[in-house]
Write a structure and sequence with these properties.
Blueprint lengths: L2 H11 L21 E5 L2 E4 L4 E4 L14 H13 L8 H13 L5 E5 L2 H16 L3 E5 L12 E2 L9 E2 L6 H4 L2 E4 L4 H11 L3 E6 L13 H14 L2 E6 L11 H4 L6 E5 L9 E5 L1 H4 L18 H17 L2 H21 L5 E5 L2 E5 L8 H4 L4 H13 L2 E2 L8 E2 L6 H17 L1
Helix pairs in contact: 2-10, 3-10, 6-7, 11-14, 13-14
């Protein structure tokens, strides 16, 4: 099979030939790779080519592909049923694990995706506060929820306008878009409008405009200002939950939100999402309270089994320091090679996540991200792809490493990086 032939077949029956837009390679050009299998740190495409995988299903495969514990858990569950539409002990076990690992989550509800988690958390926040307006930050992505698919208006402190067809302007206007890492701008807005705000939602470490690290004062100001005006603070940790430590990094540094959204890693590669937080807020959910939220496949036993197996490996092996060292050495070598060749390159990294930006200077805001040379990234992407290294097919996504990325894979990857930087 050829990737090009599969893509043509797909376009005849699937819009754009893909089921998620970024897979279409539009940001980098070329033909998507159709994957037929994966093992450890590797992907294998329809043409039999092997790639060192730095996408990792966009984050959840922190143990690599086909980890024995996860595979065994899935096999065992499949033998006893893949879905029941009824409660299972597995849901309780997962909820207990999450509540123990993340102190700010006292109760948790499972859903099927990060988008569902965010949508439900916003509904809950509006019900709890009796307010309608939501604050988000430019460059942060929280799933394809209508009210969050918005962009900033013409002024610094304006209400959102639709960023996609099909979102009514009345829905978009219920969301305010502010600048990530802008402490003064946020405080100024809250001073004027805080009493109207139901919730402020943020990626505490942004992973959807590349990786953009927060200023501690920025996150601290979110907590202080929301508390002062009675709004809720929601951390979207669909990508970052359990990736930097066993639990939530903001929780460990003393920044406790009211609600948290989770996904990715807690499903161990299976579709899953969750939202949780304070008991008094979560008590509003049906059937205990008046806020309706439901899902036939929520708490699916396959996802719970895979997630529990993944979290148990993370808990017992505590690989986080090693993951950070693995990625840190890779980033250091990449930046040194770019500097040697006079190529402007900024790489933000934390733990096992990194964002690659072909530009000078620090990248701390969405405006900084937009200065990046996307054409240079596309050339770099294809040069690496030709050399068997698979990065995200977009300059605004994240590079991930897993526990399966060993010394051999990282050495091969850095050789490929050096060769790629030599020809772009």
């Amino acid at each position: 099979m050829k990737n090009e032939d599969l893509f043509e077949r797909a376009k005849a029956v699937i819009p754009g030939g893909v089921d998620s837009p970024v897979r279409a390679f539009r940001k980098v050009g070329g033909t998507p790779r159709f994957i037929v299998g994966a093992s450890g740190p590797y992907l294998f495409d329809a043409e039999g080519k092997r790639y060192i995988d730095f996408v990792l299903s966009w984050g959840p495969m922190i143990l690599g592909h086909g980890h024995p514990s996860v595979v065994e858990a899935l096999k065992n569950q499949a033998e006893t049923g893949t879905s029941y539409g009824a409660p299972t002990e597995l849901e309780i076990m997962m909820a207990e694990t999450i509540c123990q690992a993340i102190p700010s989550i006292e109760r948790v509800r499972f859903v099927n995706s990060g988008t569902e988690a965010v949508m439900s958390a916003l509904r809950l926040a509006r019900a709890f506060t009796g307010r309608d307006l939501i604050v988000k930050f430019e460059g942060c992505y929280h799933g394809h929820v209508d009210s969050l698919l918005v962009k900033a208006g013409s002024g610094a402190l304006t209400f959102g306008i639709p960023d996609t067809a099909g979102v009514p302007s009345t829905i978009a206007s219920m969301t305010v878009v502010l600048n990530y890492n802008d402490v003064n701008g946020f405080r100024e807005f809250m001073a004027q409008h805080g009493q109207q705000i139901a919730a402020v939602i943020v990626e505490p470490i942004a992973g959807n405009m590349g990786v953009v690290l927060p200023k501690y004062d920025f996150l601290k100001s979110l907590r202080q200002e929301t508390k002062q005006c009675g709004a809720l603070l929601i951390f979207d940790e669909v990508i970052t939950g359990f990736r930097f430590c066993f639990g939530s990094h903001p929780d460990f540094v003393g920044l406790r939100p009211d609600l948290t959204c989770l996904g990715k890693i807690i499903g161990g590669g299976m579709p899953v999402g969750a939202f949780g937080g304070r008991k008094d807020i979560m008590a509003l959910l049906a059937p205990e309270g008046p806020v309706y939220q439901a899902g036939t496949l929520a708490g699916n036993p396959m996802a719970m089994r895979a997630g529990l197996a993944t979290l148990e490996v993370l808990r017992t092996t505590n690989p986080y320091e090693r993951l950070e060292e693995t990625l840190g050495l890779f980033v250091q070598d990449m930046q040194a090679e770019a500097s040697r060749r006079g190529i402007p390159l900024a790489v933000n990294h934390r733990g096992s996540m990194a964002g690659i930006f072909f530009q000078e200077g620090e990248v701390r805001t969405f405006a900084d991200v937009m200065k990046s040379d996307t054409k240079l990234y596309a050339q770099f992407f294809h040069a690496l792809l030709d050399r068997g290294v698979y990065l995200a097919p977009s300059p605004y996504e994240t590079l991930f490493v897993s526990t399966a990325h060993g010394k051999d894979e990282m050495e091969k990857a850095i050789v490929a990086v050096r060769e790629a930087l030599a020809i772009i």
